[in-house]
Description:
With about 675 residues, the chain is α+β, with helices and mostly antiparallel strands. It contains 35 helices and 16 strands. The strands form five sheets. Strands 11, 12, 13, 14, 15 and 16 form a six-stranded mixed sheet that branches. The protein has a three-stranded mixed sheet with strand order 3-4-5. A hairpin with a 2-residue loop joins strand 1 and strand 2. The N and C termini lie far apart (about 105 Å).
Amino acid sequence: MNIKDLSKLLEQSNGEEEVISTLKDDSLVSNIEFWEVSDLILKMSDIAKKQILYDRELCEKLKIKDFNYNKIISTMSTEMLAQILEDTDLVKNTLGLSESWVCDLIKSLEDDGTKERLMQSYEISDRYQIELISTFGTKKKTGLILHNEEFSESDIAEILKTFKPEELRNFLEKNKKFCNNKEIYPYSIVSKLESKEQIEFVKLLLDMDINLMEKKEILAILNDDVKAEIDANEFPDELKKALSMKKKYSSQIFLDLERDLEDYRGLDRLIEVIPNEYTEAEKEKFMKLCEICPDITVGSLLYGRSTYFSSGREYLEAEKWISSVIDSLDSTYSKAQKMAVIDNAIGKRISYSPDFDTEVFNKHDSRALWRIISSGYGVCNGIANVEKYIFDRVGIDSEIVSGEAHAFLKIKDIELPLANGEMVRGNTILDPTWNLANNRFGCRPANFCIDYEKAREGDINSEGIDSEAHKNDEQLQDATLKLEDKSLRALFTSVGLADKEGQFPAKDLVKKSNAIHELYANNPAKNVEAQFLLLAEKCPEFISCQNESMQMLSNILLNNENLKFNKCVVDRVYDKTDENRRPFMYVYIDSDELGRKFYLADKEQGKFIESPEEKFTERFECYDRDLERTKGVRPWEAEEQKKETQDLSKSSEAMDIKEEEER
C-alpha cells in the first residue's frame, strides 16, 4: 500500500482507525517515507493525532522526528493543544521538543492563565520568558511588569514595546514612579517600536502627561522615515530641534559639534561618545557640551578594544585636572622630567580601589579613564591607561604591558641621564600602580624607570614566592634602561619633588615617627595614637586612600621594635547595615601590654578612634572573599602571631622609605 492508498482510505467513514491500523503493519507500509507519513497525519483529526503521539512504539516504527511532532501539535485546536502541553512528560521526555518549540506552542494559546501556568510547569528560561509574556493580554502584562522584581530594565522594555500606542501611553502616565525607580524612560520604549507604531504614538505625544525633556527625547530618537512624515510645525520650537537630530542607533543620536550645543540640552541619555581622537578644538567644544549635558556617556578605550564609561561631568573634572598637570610642566623639561611630575601627580590624585577583589567590586568603574580621575580610584590597568593617556598628550611614547594579573607601562625610546652625566636612550618600565603609595607619601618611587631585571626582582616576596606580576619576556626583553639611585634623585630634585640633596619628603615623616617611638617607648597606647595623628597630619585624606595608608601604617608607622605586638592587622571591613558594603580601614592589635585593641578609621570624624571589641565585631564584618582566602577565619580570630596588611595592589615591593632615614 502506498501513500495515495492511505490518503483515499483516510477519506472514508472509519478511515482514520484503518489508517492507524495499517501504519502498524510493516508489510503494508514498508515503502512509505517518514515525511509522507507526517503529511498524512497532518490531515487527521485532533483525536487521531493525539492517539498517534501517545503510541510510542508506532512513532518509533514510523521514524517521526521531533520537528514533525512540533508540526503535528501546532496544527491542533487550541483546546487540544493545551491538553497535550499539560502533559510535560510526554512533550519534554517522550517527544523531546526543545524549549523554543514549547515556547512557540504555548504562545499560540489564547488563555493567559493557561500560558502562565505552562510557563512555570516547563520552567521556561529567562531567554524565552519575556518573549512568551509579550503575547499575554495588556492587563496581565501590566500586572507582571509591576510585581515581578526579577525583571530587568531591558526585560520590561521588551514587554512594553508590544503594547499598543494608546496602552503604552496609559502605562507610562500611570506608573511614573515605578518607571523612574526602574530607570524605564519613555524614549527607550518608543525607540523599539516599528515605524507605524511610532507614528501613532507621536500623535498622542503633545497631550501626554510627561515632561518636556521626555518628549524631546522621544522625538530625537524616532526612525528617520517617521521624522520625514511628521509635520514639524505642529510642535513648539524646543521640540522642533529634537526632530532635527540624526539618529545613530536605536536609542542614541549622532553628536555634531558644529551645531548649537544648546540644542542638546536635556538629551544627555541619548549621547554616547568616545572622544580619545578629538583634536584640541573638538575637545574644547566637547568640554562645553559636558557643561550643558553633564550626564552624557563618555567612553574610553582600554587596550584599544574594551570600552569603559564615564559621565560628561567626570570627563570635565578629569580633563581640567589633566590640563592643570600638563600646564605645570616647564617648557624646558625633558621627557623624563615630565614623567616624574605626571607619575607623582597621579599618585597624589588616585588610590587603588579599596574594595578590589571583593563581592562588591565594580570592575567597570575602576577602569573607566575619566571616572578613575574623578573618583580617585582605579586598578592597575585602568591607572596605567590614565598615565598613558597623559603621556600621549605630552609626546611620551608608551604602551600598556601585562604580566600575571598586573598591568604597567613600557616607556619606549626615552632618554635618561646616567650618574656620570651622560645620556642613554632606550626602553624602560614604569609601574604607576606600585608607585601609588610612594608618591602619595612623598617616598622615593621604587618602580620609576626600572629595567626588566629589576621589575622581576620586585615580583619575588620575602618568602621567595614569585607573583610573576611583571613577567613578559616577549614584550619586555628590550626594556634594559634604568635610572640609578643618584640619577633618579637628581631628576626628582630638578622638578621640585626632592630637596637639593636628593632627599624625598618622607624622610621627615620617618624622623617624626621614630621620635614618637622613642618618646613613648614605654607607653605603646600613646605611641599608637600618636602614629595615627602623624598619619593624618602628613596625609589629611588618609581615610580615602585606604590601600596606601594601610601600607604606610603596616610598613612604617607601626613597624618598630618598641611596639612589641603579638599581632598587628591593618585591613578592611564593611558596616553590616550598609547595603553597598563600602570598605572601612581598621587596625587590630594584640599585645601583652595593650591586650586586644581595635582602631577604626572613622570617616565622619576623619581620624582613628578606638572601638570596643564587642561593638566593633557587632557592627563590622569581613568581605566574603576575604574570608574565603582565610578559610572563614577573621583576622582577630586567628591564633598565629604575625603582622598582616591587606595590599590590594598586590605589590610585593615595600615602601622605599626606610633608607631615607639613613641619608
